[in-house]
Amino acid sequence: MADLASRITKPDEEPAPAAPAAETKLDGDEEVGSALVDATYDVEIKLSDLQNEEGNPLYSVKSFEELGLPKSINDGLLAMNFKKPSKVQETALPLMLANPPRNMIAQSQSGTGKTAAFVLTCLTRVDLNQKTTPQALLLAPSRELARQIQGVILSIGQFCGDLTVVAAIPGAVARDTKVEGSIVVGTPGTVIDLIKRNQFDTKNLKVLVIDEADNMLDMQGLGDQCLRVKQKIPRTTQILLFSATFPDKVMSFAEKYAPSANQMRLKHNDLTVKGISQMYMDCPDQDKKYDILCKLYGLMTIGSSVIFVRTRESADEIKRRMESDGHKVSVLHGAYEGVNRDTLLDDFRSGRSKVLITTNVLARGIDVSTVSMVINYDIPMKGPGEREPDAETYLHRIGRTGRFGRVGVSISFVYDKRSYQALTYISNYYGIDLVQLSPDDWDETERKVQDVLKSSRAKPDYAPNAIKVD
Ligand SMILES: Nc1ncnc2c1ncn2[C@@H]1O[C@H](COP(=O)(O)OP(=O)(O)OP(=O)(O)O)[C@@H](O)[C@H]1O
Fold it and tell me: Where is this motif: Q motif (predicted)?
């Protein structure tokens, strides 16, 4: 307990200020119009300031044009309102685009634009005139993330002519059809099945991207399937591994999987994103967690939020109870069928549903810019008997908010010695100061959370990629 106490700010202290500093200004939103910006808010964001701040993961000195990308791709970036690359884009892109192609292992904080970095590489490397020949394969751990990446490819590549991108996810490719597209994005199990059934010809693949690579290459999980994919692709295929986390135990395997790779690595202490204010709620016991959750929602008008729980059953149970208490919530986990899952996430993305209760299935990669709060209803644990704190999953979960310079709050619920110790371990691992919230002082809790959220609430219809950059 003493450990956590040294890491947390005392209840009567101010919460850590949300980055960026309160004096910075929020620019209008080019796409949705400046009328949406509430001028009375004094905490405002300016992405260009963050991108000029050395040491910030969004910092860059170059423009996309200087990275030598084709005009059609630059036009796509412009249409998405990407004015300047982030650090991972600026640093990794020239290395990935150099010839002869070299493998890459790249680590960068959550929400800092890794997807565009590898998508730009794929779009630059494939011959888009060969519309039916798969030349780039991107693998992700969930159907939601694969679909999201497919969307990013189609957006960035919107001026690249007749771009064909196939989603190789459960139920998407009929048994008797060939995978015909320049780029394929999928989950490893489905991709292996398609290769086995000769539906997917891999012999022309020039690039293989593995997103969330530490998770994908973990031999307790999807590692075996990723190895099988590698055995089926040409030896010359450029391999790109991306994640916000690369624990040492996976790293040696990653280095074998992508030999002689260029590497971009981060230290534990540099992994957290400043825009996410990390807090914890000291709950009296397990049973009170639910009441505290409802109280939190009752008190606060929060943008969109995600509640992470340990099991599918508790996700369903919390949904049932919250609904019977008059809250409108959605739930998504692995027990749901594919297309249902797509609808659920689409509802959440569009704001039709504002609260999403989920398991670790959505802990990684999902990019919904309106998410201003993440709740760790259960502290993530891993290993046999779930006895070890899962610092990686913690980081990915909280990273669903605070994306690309936005601000957000994460609240982790602790209630007993074990959960308290697990959070202590996680906060020490990343060197973070967690702010304590007390269920006995709701005025103070509300103030601490709202202090952070008011800047993101200034733009209720915050569209993805819609921060205006000077
Ligand atoms: N250069 C840029 N300018 C403005 N917005 C950008 C830029 N690059 C990426 N973005 C936006 O930033 C958000 C986060 O990007 P992305 O999803 O790629 O993060 P990530 O690093 O892959 O995060 P995670 O580790 O959670 O998967 C997206 O909404 C994306 O559109």
Answer: 62-90
Going by C-beta distance under 8 Å and a sequence separation of 6 or more, which residues neighbour residue 389? 379, 380, 381, 382, 421, 422, 423, 425, 426, 429
The CB density around residue 308, as the number of other CB atoms within 10 Å, is 28
Domain residue limits at 98: 24-266
As for how many domains the chain has, the answer is 2
* Inside any domain, residue 378: yes
CA of 220 relative to ligand 1 center, distance in Å: 28
Domain CATH for 236: 3.40.50.300
Tell me: do 155 and 41 sit in the same domain: yes
Question: Does 399 lie in the same domain as 255?
Answer: no
Which numbered atom of ligand 1 lies nearest the CA of 365?
27
What integer pLDDT is reported at residue 297 of this predicted model? 86
Q: How confident is the model at residue 450 (pLDDT cuts 50, 70, 90)?
A: confident
In angstroms, rounded to a whole number, what is the distance separating the alpha carbons of residues 435 and 177?
54
As a whole number, mean pLDDT of residues 311-318 equals: 96
- CA-based nearest residue to 268, from 240, 248, 249, 241: 248
- Claim to verify: residue 7 and residue 36 sit in the same structural domain: no
pLDDT digits (tens, 9 = 90+) for 75-120: 999 999 998 999 999 999 999 999 999 999 999 999 999 999 999 9
* Spatial separation of the C-alpha atoms in residues 162 and 130, rounded to whole Å: 10
Nearest protein CA to atom 25 of ligand 1, as residue: 110
Residue 414: helix, strand or coil by DSSP? strand
Q: Pick from 266, 295, 311: which residue ends a domain?
A: 266
ipTM of model: 0.99
Question: What is the DSSP annotation of 49-113?
Answer: HHHTSTTSTT--SS-TGGGT--HHHHHHHHHTT--S--HHHHHHHHHHHSSS---EEEE--TTSS
| 35 and 9 share one domain | no
**369 and 284, same domain (yes or no):** yes
Whole-angstrom CA distances from 23 to 263, 269, 455, 458, 467 are 36, 26, 11, 15, 17
Q: Which amino acid is at 219?
A: M
pLDDT tens across 130-182, in order? 999 999 999 999 999 999 999 999 999 999 999 999 999 999 999 999 999 99
Query: What residue ranges line ligand 1, CB within 6 angstroms?
Result: 82, 84-86, 89, 108, 110-116, 244, 365, 367, 369, 399, 403-404, 464-465
How far is the centre of ligand 1, averaged over its atoms, from the C-alpha of 404 (Å)? 6
